[in-house]
Structures are given as structure tokens and as C-alpha cells.
Design a protein that fits this description.
Strand content: 15-25%
Shape: globular
InterPro entries: DUF488
Order of helices and strands: EHEHEHHHEHE
Largest sheet: 5 strands, parallel
Helix content: 40-55%
Pfam families: DUF488
Distance between the termini: 20 Å
Radius of gyration: 14 Å
Structural class: alpha/beta
Protein name: DUF488 domain-containing protein
Organism: Sedimenticola thiotaurini
Length: 146
């Protein structure tokens, strides 16, 4: 099963939506805690829903259970915890939430996980895909759209 990830920062809207369209994304899966921030520019939920439908023939869903808590994210952003500590806390959070139990395979196939980070290396969207690969039988093949 093919799944993608993308971050919206350091991308102009034209590049972002071209990546989505050219990858034949069917569903953009928003895994951000806050999907209405003014800092999001074109990536606010209502704008995304419209642009995805009109430009990419794709749908939009928001899965906040696949996002870190505000406390975990804030601690990492303020450098109060390391990436390794953040990763451990987030993996434990996903396990406590049992996110693998409610996975809709039709959403994941040609789906794309969205968050803000430009690169996937230190980003929770990568951790979500890795967690799902480990805890489901889906065998997700991931491609990070940069």
C-alpha cells in the first residue's frame, strides 16, 4: 500500500498542490494538532479542503489522534526535551491511543499525511507511518514529498 507524507512549510502553494496532484493523492490526512493557525497560510483546514477538491480531486480529513499533545510538542519546540525523548513520548502516546485499531485502509491507500515540518526526519508524520507499519499488517510503502 502506498502512502505519502508532506509538510507545508518552506513550500509555496503552487509547489505543494503540484506535489499532491502529481502523486495522485486521494486523501490528505491532516495529522496536526492545530489545523486553523494563522501561521498555516494556505494550509488551514477550510482552505485545504477547497484547494484539494478543486485542484487535485482529493479529499481532506483531520486525525488529531495522530498528532502529539500540546505538552509533548511544546517541550520539544522549547528544547526542554531531545528528539529521542520526543519520539519516545509520542510513540507511547500512539500506543495508549491504540491508533492502529481505527485505521481506514481506504484512506491510507494513496493517502498523504500532512504536518508542518518541511523534512520528515524529525517529524511525527514519519513516526505515525512507522508505528502503523509495526502495529498493523498493512506494509505501508512511504514516500516523503519534499
Amino acid at each position: 500500500m502506498h502512502v505519502y507524507t508532506i509538510g507545508f512549510t518552506q513550500k509555496k502553494a503552487e509547489h505543494f498542490f503540484t506535489l499532491i496532484r502529481n502523486s495522485n493523492i486521494r486523501t490528505l490526512i491532516d495529522v496536526r494538532l492545530n489545523n486553523i493557525s494563522q501561521l498555516s497560510g494556505f494550509a488551514k483546514k477550510d482552505d485545504l479542503r477547497f484547494f484539494l477538491r478543486e485542484l487535485c480531486d482529493a479529499s481532506y480529513i483531520h486525525l488529531p489522534d495522530w498528532a502529539p499533545t500540546k505538552d509533548i510538542l511544546s517541550a520539544y519546540q522549547k528544547k526542554a526535551i531531545t528528539w529521542d525523548a520526543y519520539q519516545d513520548k509520542f510513540l507511547n502516546l500512539m500506543a495508549r491511543r491504540s491508533i492502529e485499531k481505527d485505521v481506514d485502509q481506504s484512506v491510507l491507500e494513496q493517502g498523504c499525511l500532512l504536518c508542518s515540518e518541511h523534512q520528515p526526519h524529525h517529524c511525527h508524520r514519519r513516526l505515525v507511518v512507522e508505528y502503523l507499519n509495526e502495529h498493523t499488517g498493512l506494509e505501508l510503502q512511504v514516500k516523503h514529498l519534499i
